[in-house]
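Before relying on records like the one below, remember that each one covers exactly one chain. Contacts with other chains, cofactors or solvent are not represented anywhere in the record.
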Amino acid sequence: MRIGELSGRTGVPVPTIKYYLREGLLPAGELTSPNQAQYGDTHVHRLKLVRAMIDVGRLSIASAREVLTALDTPGRSLHDTLGVALGAVTAPSPATGVESAGESAAREQADRAVEKLVDRLGWQVTTDSPARQALAQVIVAFHTLGQDELIGLLDDYAAAAERLAAAEVAAVATHPDPDGLVESAVIGTVLGDAALAALRRLAQEDASHRLFAAQRTAPANLG
């Protein structure tokens, strides 16, 4: 198919497809003339994957390209490829300005808290995992805003995350095709974050309704 038909089958505008080609997110088609190329079902699938990662998973173009490059690298292990995906969705916020002594101390304390949590849970994660730094940044922000009671929920967060991660990995492991297994793991990582965030919002709304709305509508005690 030509690029116009590829656009029609995927719903991706032709200029966007050309942009993805330039950015290396989509492999080039088979040239049939100096200015014409043919595309196949693999391009349809790749475009759907790219759109899902960017539109739903909220990855940047650079992060999506990094993940897709890992997917396309022959012989790369599932664990290594998954690590690239985890890094893409867990990039910590860049530092702004020079840390004060108090900020530096708070960050070091948060780093130690993350290390103790990981050790206590027995999680096998690398010392340079971006998620460690990202979690430490959250802890610092909680403390700075006077929300230490939320820091106390870290074990609850971890328990929920551990259970979900085990279920995700077990589900992916059932995939019959090795290449499909790797892609499934990456998709689960990128889109799973979006699904978890949405489900958490729904659960928070329900919990708020059950606690606060019930209090508001409860009859006054006239005794």
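Residues 178-217 form the longest helix (40 residues).
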